[in-house]
Amino acid sequence: NFKNWDDKNSVRIQKVFRGYMMRKYYFKRMQERLIKNFREDKCARVIQREWKIFNFQRQMKRDAKERRDIACTRIQKFMRGFSVFNSCGAQRTMASMAALQKSLRSTSRRNRAAKIIQKRFRKIRSRMRK
């Protein structure tokens, strides 16, 4: 539930997601540039610029509302996956990452991966509360 999050955090989620998509679809040189500038302010601008180019090239023809809904759920799922990567051991991290990458290919896999990530995310949250 992202209702209580301020604008700064929602922008951060979008940047994380854009960065993930960028690393997935662009060349090694671009990856190196992102990794090099990852902790600097200009990294966000690089990601945003390349994300716009990427979207333009794909020429998404979906209805605007449908596209927005898909983007929201994708960002939420990715953020959960991102939390899982940061909090769990190496083995779980690799499993979650593989599940997330497969999730972008087909609907059934996406749903399966979302369940895996949600399950792990709940475990992390319950541990944090204790």
Automatic annotation (TrEMBL):
InterPro entries: IQ_motif_EF-hand-BS
Xref: Gene3D superfamilies: 1.20.5.190
Superkingdom of origin: Eukaryota
Protein name: Uncharacterized protein
Lineage of the species this protein comes from: Eukaryota, Sar, Alveolata, Ciliophora, Intramacronucleata
